[in-house]
Write a structure and sequence with these properties.
Elements: E1 2-6, H1 10-23, E2 26-30, H2 45-50, H3 53-56, E3 62-67, E4 75-80, E5 88-93, E6 98-101, E7 105-106, E8 112-113, E9 116-120, H4 123-129, H5 134-139, H6 142-160, E10 161-165, E11 168-171, H7 172-179, E12 184-186, E13 189-191, E14 198-199
Antiparallel strand pairs: 1-9, 2-3, 3-6, 4-5, 6-9, 7-8, 10-11, 10-14, 12-13
Helix pairs in contact: 1-6
Length: 200
């Protein structure tokens, strides 16, 4: 599994998504639909901002998608809910998909901002642990995936990063929130702008 943890507010995540659309043609959906509704596709970051997605996800962005040069096989899965809750929800699945989960304020840690996370399967991990057929895994253009993913990681680490906490990038919007009195949550505690662990 390829993974990058970083600190970001909603404006930072929007910047990340904009860059991903610029990198290569991409499809993007909410990770899970609302109950009893079909999953929503976002053709741009503007679609996210103009929808109720952030409000529906308690103030954060939670999306999955794929670059079209990497795979053509993701699919929407519908699963049943407990009848007391609703009838169904939908999720985007596929071995070639990526996921972006925005960190939210930690209720039990002075509302300190939690880590955001970009994740996707790599080829070795997919063959070892992913619950997909070899045919599905072999359909993915893993070389292209590595190339696009690495470009994104470099952009986050080198261009979008304003500071670091334990080597994890703090993006510009999250850093501004920090300067304005916010906190970051990171094991083993809560960190503010004066913390020696934060490297500019």
């Amino acid at each position: 599994m390829s993974q990058l943890d970083f600190y970001a507010n909603s404006s930072d995540i929007i910047d990340v998504i904009d860059y991903m659309f610029e990198l290569s043609p991409m499809k993007l959906f909410e990770a899970y639909s609302l109950k009893d509704q079909e999953i929503r596709e976002f053709k741009s970051s503007k679609d996210i901002l103009e929808s109720s997605h952030i409000e529906d996800n308690h103030g954060g962005i939670f999306v999955r998608g794929w670059w079209e040069a990497v795979t053509s096989k993701p699919y929407i899965e519908r699963f049943a809910l407990n009848p007391t809750v609703g009838k169904f929800r939908e999720s985007l699945e596929g071995v070639g998909t990526f996921q972006i989960l925005q960190g939210r304020p930690h209720d039990l840690a002075a509302n300190a901002l939690n880590l955001s996370r970009f994740t996707h399967w790599n080829e070795k991990g997919a063959f070892q642990r992913a619950n997909f057929s070899d045919t599905d895994i072999e359909e993915v253009n893993w070389a292209k995936y590595r190339s696009l993913s690495n470009k994104l990681l470099r952009q986050i680490r080198n261009q979008m990063c304003k500071a670091k906490l334990f080597k994890r990038p703090i993006l510009k919007g999250a850093y501004l929130d920090l300067v304005n009195g916010g906190n970051l949550f990171g094991q083993p505690g809560v960190y503010s702008i004066g913390s020696v662990e934060i490297e500019s």
